[in-house]
Every structure is written in structure tokens, then in C-alpha cells.
Amino acid sequence: MNLRRVHIIGTGLLGTSIGLALRNLDIEVRLSDRDPGRLHLASEMGAGKAWREEDALPQADLLVLCVPPGRVAAELKRAQQLELALTYSDVASIKAQPQLEAEKLGVDVTEFVGGHPIAGRERSGPGNARADLFVGRPWVLTPTERTGTQAVAAATWLATSCGAHVVQLSPEEHDAALGLLSHLPQALATLLASRLLDAPSGWLEMVGQGFRDVTRIADSDPELWAEIAGGNIDNLVPELRRLSADLADLAEQLAAESTAVTEGPRGRTSNAFRQAVARGNQGRERLPGKHGARPQLYVSVPVVVADEPGELARLLTEVGDAAINVEDLSLEHSPGARLGLCELLVRPDDVERLQVVLRERGWSVHVSP
Amino acid sequence: MNLRRVHIIGTGLLGTSIGLALRNLDIEVRLSDRDPGRLHLASEMGAGKAWREEDALPQADLLVLCVPPGRVAAELKRAQQLELALTYSDVASIKAQPQLEAEKLGVDVTEFVGGHPIAGRERSGPGNARADLFVGRPWVLTPTERTGTQAVAAATWLATSCGAHVVQLSPEEHDAALGLLSHLPQALATLLASRLLDAPSGWLEMVGQGFRDVTRIADSDPELWAEIAGGNIDNLVPELRRLSADLADLAEQLAAESTAVTEGPRGRTSNAFRQAVARGNQGRERLPGKHGARPQLYVSVPVVVADEPGELARLLTEVGDAAINVEDLSLEHSPGARLGLCELLVRPDDVERLQVVLRERGWSVHVSP
Predict the structure, then answer these.
(1) Which of A173, A244, A357, B263 has the most CB atoms around it within 10 Å of its CB?
(2) What letter would DSSP give residue B368?
(3) What does the CA dihedral A160, A164, A165, A167 come to, rounded to 10 degrees?
(4) Which of B217, B273, B297, B311 to mutate to test the interface with A (most CBs of A within 10 A)?
(5) Listed residue (B186, B176, B108) closest to B140, CA to CA
(6) How distant, in Å, are the alpha carbons of A105, B4, B270 from that of B264?
(7) Partner-chain residue, chosen from A44, A186, A214, that has the shortest CB–CB distance to B217
(8) What's the Cα-to-Cα distance from A368 to each of A297, A301, A346, A352, B232, rounded to whole Å?
(9) Which residues pair with A333 in a beta bridge?
(10) What's the distance, CA A249 to chain centroid?
(11) Cα distances (Å, whole numbers) of residue B298 to A123, B95, B239
């Protein structure tokens, strides 16, 4: 199957990333969005052509709804009434409730299959989109017994065109899995981050990388999560209760050790915590591709840069003079520090030459982490 | 104060990184470790000279114990008996218990001040050490009323020589803070990762980046954590109980919504989860600098940049010509895309001028997301 024309409603991170991926394959992409600024940026980034309802264009082969979960059914209904496409899919992170709502609204569900690419970034919006967002990722499709084969074929083509691999599950099993794998972690990160609200301000600068990693997704959008959690309450509640009990158990075991265990030659150690961490190690071992699900395309070269106007430009000018392309870059420094660390991501072939060139010119270049 | 000679016991990640930082300043560094292979690697990496007990060398100005928390007191006692140094410090992540043990063992605690650099990496061992590991990071010192001024001065010199800034706290307050900021997150990551042990194997490939981030530190060493948790039980137990209660509360609120709330136009949404995520957002806002700088101090200006060598340098040169300092920067593009988006973080005062300057020179500047 080869589709020629795809319509994307919603040019946030996922919609724009899908557009970029399809445009790289020269597929015709139409974009629409309620927000004209977002639509303009997505279009300028090359994700497709902004589409207005008054444009009289032929039907798309596939329309992808990249809107919050609570809007999927209504937007689907409207798109079908306008006959915008032959088949429909979505990217929402809950599946059973939108499916049920679509059926209630009288949508022709033979033309629709639910979809959920398991990919995302901590930052949203079209500005953070990337064509390779889905490469090597799972893309769940959730057909029901009423779903037509054309819809499944079209959504499968979409997922594989974006570089993802398709996993088929029922909407209900999808939601159960995501309750554990996505919605529970969100709740944990959120509740841990909330604990900072009571922390003495003098403590805050002691927050290290571990806390930051565990709470990164606590930056997520409350409105979006009100819909996701609200649409998956039946799976989420038992997960929350189970983890609450696990925490309480660990607390009781530690408390018991505190009074019962005599101190050894290496101070007071906790067998309960040792066993818990060992079990966590084992759990992580089950993850596919633990050290980066994505193939490592680039290598990081850390360079020390003085915190002054023009220093970073000088660095990048010298990299550019050597005709080395910087694929990505991050800059780290702290208020008041005289130095920052700039990590240049370059192709593996370029690493050695980059290190030589920069050292010749007096930069302090470190070994890749 | 300027020290000339530092002795490091324990050439893991932290010990080797300290050695590298000091060698960059031409300080004489002696290294010792029970494990000859690790010692050799650290020495070969340039972290200092491997030291044997039979080497008759003058006393070091400062000896830094980079050993697990349960070994700090005994190693300190032994080092003092050998008169290896004039002053002593350590880098263990709990402080009250090693201090107490040292006092019990009859260590001369006037010569010792506890230290804890809040830095680390997910990977341990000398091979992952880096001289800049501590740059811009806090380094906690925990003097007591018995600590001598020489020890504090030496450890302060060490921290600042490594690029860190010193925070002084009592050992007890340090441990209370780290109970929340480090030991509780470890328990959460660990217990969440353990839940994978019961998950159907078909679910595992649906694990996304969020789950991976939340559980990254679940890869930590069980032995080390048996010592850390065992040495901080009194602070950790109430933290575990509190978070257990928070999870149970959220579960009960969601369960109540499930039966009580009528469905709105956007499906079933959860007010409880919305409020929880919003509180988590607020908690995260208190963190100093997601990228090491304080983000609320800076505004992001996104600029479209062609994916060619030299383009980014040209952009930053023009920013530098306008004497605007870029506080942080991130570059996003995907392999194959013709354009990337560069987000320049600048002071709010500079935003308008930056937009004008760049637009005059033909750059496509977007409104901050």
C-alpha cells in the first residue's frame, strides 16, 4: 500500500513530526490547526501545507488526528461529515474511551483505527518536532472487530513510513499497559516534584541529576493529563494503590531494621533496601535496548567555553571552518560560573578530526562521556 | 589558601574525577585503591600518581576519602594512624552516621570535615570520570562544632578548585535534605522498575522515554544503596510513608471521580490529576535551572537555521556582534531535514533587540513557544 495524500489535524509535536517524516518521503501533507501561529511554524518547518476549509481539494487517503484524547471523537465526527479522508487514525495516549465516544457519536468506525506512537519529548509544540521522532519506536494500533481492513492498512503504512514498528493490541489492553508504563510514572514524577513545594529553599540547590531525571515528566501539561488520567481511571487506580503499598512496605521494613539490626563493620546497612534495589535492577534488565532505544547516530564532544558573548560563536565558527556539521548541541553552565560546557553532537567519523582541530586552536576538549 | 599535595583514596568515578580536575591545575595528586586495575586506569587517565604504602613521601595537605559511606570512618582512622595528611575530607552521600562512627573510633575529628559533591553520572568507575564533573555543581561541607578551621579551608579549596561552589550544612540537615532529594527518588525509581518483573513480556516494548527517565537510577548498585539507605533510615522512613500516603490519596480521589463525575464534552477528565500535575509543575519551577541556569531568568527565541556547516556559527557571530550574551542554546533538527530550529536563551531585556537584529539580517525568528 502506498498513500499519496495525508491530512494532519493538530500541529503540535506529534503532528508536525509526522508531517516532517512524510514530507521526507515526498508524500503530500495537509496541515490544519485551530492555532494559526502554530500552523504557520509547522508549515514553515516543512511539515506540509497549511490547509483551509475553503480550499477545495481532493479527499486525503488518511487523516491523522493529533489532538488531545478528549477531542478525538468529536474531531473525527466532524472530519467524516466533511468527507476529508477515506480512512482515519489518531495518536492519543488512551484508546478505549475515545473509541467508545466515537461509537456513541455515530462515527463510521469501520473507517477509523486508534493509534498511539510511543514517542515524545519533554518539550511540546511544533518547534520541537523532528522527522526521526518515531524511528525505531513502537506504534500501537488498536483495531476492534468493527474496524475495516483499509483503515488498518493505512495506519500501518503511516507507522512504518515514520520508521516505527506496529504493535497490535485491543484498546483495553493498550490502556492497561499504559496505566503501568506511562500513567503511573507520571503520577510518581508529579507527586515527587510536588514535595519540592514544602522544601526549605536552601535545599533546592542540592537537587542532583537523579531527582531531575525522575521528575522530568512532571513538567507535563495538566490539561492533557486531566484527559489521559480521567480516561484511564479504572487502570490507574489499582496501579497507584499497588505502588503506595510497595512504598509503605519498604518503609516498614526499614523501620524494623532500624531497631532490630545491630551495626556491622560497615555501619548500619539495610538488607531491605539492598533487595529492593536488586529487584529494580532486574526489572530494568527486562527493558529492550536499555542503553538507548535509538541507534546512536552521533557522538558527543564536550568542550569548555568561557561564559562571554562571542565565545560560543568563535567555537562554532572554527568548527564550521573545518567543514564539520554540528548535528545537535547543548550548553550547560550555572549562574556565576566562569565556564560552561558545550556538548557538540557530530557524526562518529568527524570526532577525531574535531578534537584535533579544536585542541590546535586552544580549546579544552574532553573525552566523550 | 593553596594546597600543593592531595591524596585520594578510592579511584572510582568521583575520586578519579577529582584527580583529573586537580591535575589540570598542576596539583600533585597521589592515588590509592584496593583494586589495582582501577588504580592503574585512573592513573593512566591522568588523575594522579599511583601511591604504594611503602613509598616514603611527605604528608599530603589534604586526603580525600572516595570510598563507600560505611568505610569512611575506618579508612579515616587508618589514614590518620599512618599520618598520611594534615587534613581529611570525604565524598560520601550520607554524613551524620560516618561522622558519628569516626568519633566512636577515636578519630581526631578536628582534622576532618565531611563533604558531598552533588554530582555523579549514571555510569560509575574511573573510565567515566571527567575533570569537569563538578563544574557549577554544589559541594556540601558538613562541619560540626569540633571541626578545625584548617580542615574546612582545605575542603573549601578542593571544592572550588574542582569548579564547584560550597554549601555548608550540619550533617543532620544534609541527611534530611538528601532523604527527600536523593534517597526517596531512588526508592521510587527502584519500586517502579520492579513492577516490570510482573509485566507481560508483550508490554515491554511499549516502554517509552518517560518510564526510562523515571527509572534510570534504578540501575544503581544495591550494595552502595544498602549503606546509604541504612545510614539514613530515620529520614528516609517518613519520606517513604509520606509519598505512600500521597499516592493513596490520589488513588482515592480518582476512584471517587470515576463514580461521581459526569462526562463532559471532552470525555471524562480528572480534576484531581489536573491539580496534581499543576502542583508538580510548580514544584519543578522551584528547581534552579533545568539546564544549570535559572530558566525563569531567560527567554527563548527560536530561529530557523539551515542544516549546513557554518550557518549556526554565522547566527551566533551576528548575535555576538550585537553584544547579546546567549545564556543557553539548544539545536533541534532531524537527520535529513533541511532546516533546524535553534532556541537562543537570552535575558528578557535583550529579546526585542535580538529579534530586530536577526530579522534585519534575514533570519526567520519565531515567537517564543
Answers:
(1) A244
(2) P
(3) -110
(4) B273
(5) B176
(6) 14, 71, 11
(7) A214
(8) 14, 5, 11, 11, 35
(9) none
(10) 32
(11) 17, 36, 33
ipTM above 0.90, yes or no: no
For residue B83, count CB atoms less than 10 angstroms from its CB and return exposed for 0-12, middle for 13-18, buried for 19 or more: exposed
For residue B267, the model assigns a pLDDT of 62
Query: Which residue of A lies nearest to B366 if distances are taken between CA atoms?
Result: A41
Q: Report how far residue A63's alpha carbon sits from residue A45's, in angstroms, rounded to the nearest whole number.
A: 20
Q: Which of 157-196 (A) contact B at CB < 8 A? A: 167, 169, 177-178, 180-182, 184-196
Task: With beta carbons less than 8 A apart as the criterion, state whether B76 and B84 touch.
Answer: no
What is the full DSSP assignment across B84-122? Answer: -EEEEEE--S--HHHHHHHHHTT--GGGEEEEEE----S
Question: How many A-B residue pairs are in contact by the CB < 8 A criterion?
Answer: 530
pLDDT at A31 over 90: yes
Our CA-based measurement puts residue B218 at a distance from the nearest CA of chain A, in whole angstroms, of 6
**Is A260 exposed, middle or buried, given 0-12, 13-18 or 19+ CB atoms closer than 10 A?**
exposed
User: Which set of grid coordinates corresponds to residue B107?
Assistant: 578519630
Are the beta carbons of A70 and B267 separated by less than 8 Å?
A: yes
Under the banding of pLDDT at 50, 70 and 90, the label for residue A209 is: confident
Q: Which of B138, B195, B328 faces A180 most closely, judged by CB atoms? A: B195
> What is the pLDDT averaged over residues A219-239?
94
Task: Tell how strand A49-50 and strand A28-32 pair up.
Answer: parallel
Say if the Cβ atoms of B275 and A222 lie within 8 Å. Answer: yes
Residue from the list A177, A193, A208 with its beta carbon closest to the beta carbon of B280: A193
Residues of chain B falling short of pLDDT 50: 290-296, 334-336, 369
What residues form DSSP beta bridges with A264?
A267
Q: How confident is the model at residue A267 (pLDDT cuts 50, 70, 90)?
A: low
Contact B207 A329 (CB under 8 A): no
B329 interfacial to chain A (CB closer than 8 Å):
yes
A100-103 long-range contacts (CB < 8 A, ≥24 apart) are A101/A72, A101/A73, A101/A74, A101/B267, A102/A72, A102/A73, A102/A76, A102/A77
